[in-house]
Every structure is written in C-alpha cells, then in structure tokens.
Amino acid sequence: MSPVLLVAAPEGPTLADFGKDPLWITIIKAVFIFVFLMLGVVFGVWMERKVIARMQHRYGPNRAGKFGLLQSVADGLKMGLKEDLIPRTVDKVLYMLAPIILAVPAFLAFSIIPFGPTVSMFGVETPLQLTDLPVAVLFVLAMASIGVYGIVLAGWSSRSPYAILGGLRSSAQVVSYEIAMGLSFVAVFLFAGTLSTSEIVAAQAHGSSFEIGGITIHLPSWYAILLLPSFLIYVITMFGETNRIPFDLPEGEGELVGGFQTEYSSSLKFALIMLAEYVNVFTVSALSITLFLGGWRAPWPISLWEGANVGWWPMLWFFIKLVLVFACFIWVRASLPRIRYDQLMAFGWKVLIPLNLGWILLVAAVRATRVVTDEQRGIVFTLAAIILAGALAIWFRFDTVLQRRREEKAAQIEADYERFREEPEAGGFPVPPLDLPHYHGAGRKEVPSGSN
C-alpha cells in the first residue's frame, strides 16, 4: 500500500499572483525595499557597534544623537564628503566600477524575498513581495556570484599585492562555501517541491503527515526543525558567503592590511563596499527566514491568533526574525576569533560538502518512500543506511589516519627541536658560544674567567 500524504493546501501568494501589478505599485515596492535596506544598514551598523561595545564593557557610540543613533549618519556624510584619493597606478575604470558591481547585485537579490501575504495597497490587491520566479532561490545564488566579481576586480584593479591576495581569497572562499550553501537548499526543494520563495513559505504554513506501515508520522512546519542539518550548514555558510568573522579572511588585517579594499580610502567608494557587505548580510538572513524559519508567518504561540498571518501584521514578524538573525551575526563576531585560511578551506571542502551530500542522500531516500511500494521501501532504507554508514566509516577512518599523522609529525618536530638544541652541529638552530664577554652598563666589560 502506497503511503498517503496529508498536507494542507498552500496559503499565501503563489507564482500565479505575480506579474499583474500596475507599474506604479511595482515602483512603490522597489523604493520601499531600497529605503528599507538603506535604513537597515544605518541602524544595523549602530546596533552592531553598540552591542559589541556592551559585550566588551564599553559605551559605544553615544555622541551623535540620542544614544548615538545618528553616528552612522554622521559617518556616511563624512565618507561622502571626504576627499577621494585615487592611487596613480590603478586601473581607474575597474577601480571605480568594482564597488558598484558589489552593491547592485546585493540590492537585486532582495527583490524575491516575501515580506507578507497579499494585501490591499491603495485599493490594489498585491503580494508584499517585489517579484517571484520559478527559480527564485537560484537567482539569489547568481547575484551572490556576480558580487564576487566586484571583490576580485577591486583587488586586481588596485595593483597592490595585498589587495590581489584578498580578492583571490574571496573568490576561492565563495566557490567552496557557495557549493555548500546550494547543497543545503536541495533538501528544502525536495520537501517543498518548488524553488519559488513565496511557495516555499506557503509550504511551511502547516506541518505534514504521512503513513508508513499503518503508523502516522507528523512533521513540523518550519524546515529549520524538519531539516535541521541543512539549516545548520546554511547558517555556517552565511558567514563564509558574507566574509564575516570567523570567515573574514579576504579582509584579514593581520596579514593583508585591509584585504581587497586596501587601496580604497575612506570615501564614497569605501562606503559602497561596506554598504554591499551589510546588504548581503540582510539578504542571506532574509533567505534563511524564508527557507527555514517560516518566512513572514508568525511563530508559535502568536500563530494561535487568527489574525496573526493576515494583513500587514506579517511584516512585523518578518522584521523581528530579521533582527534576531542579524543579532546572531553580531554575537558570533564578538565571540569567535578568525580561523586560518587552510582551516577555512578544509572545513568547507572536507566537512560541509560531504556532510551535505550524505544528508541529501538520506532526505531523498525518505522522500522516495512516499512513492514506492512496501516491498521497495525496505530496500531503499537499507541501501541508504548502508551507503551512509559506509561514507561515515570512510570519513572517520580518513580523519583518524590524518590525525595520527599530524600527531606523529608534531612529535617528530618536537624531538628534532630538542636534538638541535642539544647538538647545534647537527644542522639545527645556531647557539651563541658561552664564552663571549658580557657587557654591563655603558661601556663596562666583564672578562670571562680563565682568559688572559
């Protein structure tokens, strides 16, 4: 007997509801998103500086405006009016174009984020979302990939070794972590059956239930609970995708001065780079809310109120979720140190991507049990368990062997160091002779005992 899928009908806008708005409604939505992101950057910078200051027992911004609320505005005006210094040897066209390539895709990616259900705006029924696409989530990944060109061109056009290294680091980092990010979406696509952001939110409106062997299994509505490994991997890749601590290697001050933006003075171009970084943070945060945290829908127990997901109230729930996710970025920045570049790449390629592939295999096996017969279901589960167990055994064995080799190498280095200290003639570290004269004070010389 094939399993019976009991899923409530989707609620909220669907793909069929888009493309029908008048031009002036579309312009209002686009202006709202632009203003929302600009104000979000202004208050996001203030919030980050204020929260980190409190965590470090400082006051933070407290001069410009009440509680320092106008500090970000003052900084923006300063960078906009400051003299724009351009190094003589840069490629001026690409040098000027790179910050724009960084900022524009960051704003475009936010156009497919749903803020709420269908509402009446000046007498016109319209979804609280600028647009939607059958491949909306892939559009976000495409915009993130284009933004990397801005970082690479900023480093290359600066004609500085530090800037070029920062740009190359960023390109390699985004390639590795964007693969893991894309794989973390696959499980969501398998359960939602669509790549449209509005329909993914609608798929999380109610939990689903299915029967296996006469037993009904109830699944939660939010994919952050149902697909917890995908959510955790996506959260990690968010920091790598936006170059935030602990993955801010393209801007590592200790080794690259300022990374790809070393040759950009504190002018309007530098402000555009910082603006693009914070808008990208808001974009990946909003995407995590849309795909894993129920989107604009109210959390429990607010969802028990019948009017919680109707009208303009959902915008409030979406904004609260966005603030909480952004607070996690601040918390991580204030808590974790920057990792080494080899650790960054090894973690992306050797941990996140293999775990993602194994998890996708398991999710696909679970989804397959809903469309096969009872005889085939046991075979699918058995094969999935064998493959997953084999992959884990190989991974643990590989990791154990590597760890043993690291320990042996460290012990050998320690033994060589001790031998070189005792036997300098063995080719180790140079040790000064012990019978050199010792100087005490200015010009006084102590002659070693036994000398003539």
TrEMBL record:
EC numbers for this chain: 7.1.1.-
Chain positions covered by the region annotation Disordered: 423-452
Membrane topology: Multi-pass membrane protein
UniProt xrefs under InterPro entries: NADH_UbQ_OxRdtase_su1/FPO, NADH_UbQ_OxRdtase_su1_CS
One Gene Ontology CC term in the entry: plasma membrane
GO molecular function: NADH dehydrogenase activity; oxidoreductase activity, acting on NAD(P)H, quinone or similar compound as acceptor; quinone binding
Keyword Membrane attributed: yes
Bias (Basic and acidic residues) ranges: 443-452
UniProt entry keywords in alphabetical sequence: Cell membrane, Membrane, NAD, Quinone, Translocase, Transmembrane, Transmembrane helix, Ubiquinone
Membrane-spanning ranges: 23-46, 93-113, 133-154, 175-195, 215-236, 270-292, 312-332, 344-366, 378-396
Family, as annotated: Belongs to the complex I subunit 1 family.
Official protein name in the record: NADH-quinone oxidoreductase subunit H
Organism, scientific name: Thermostaphylospora chromogena
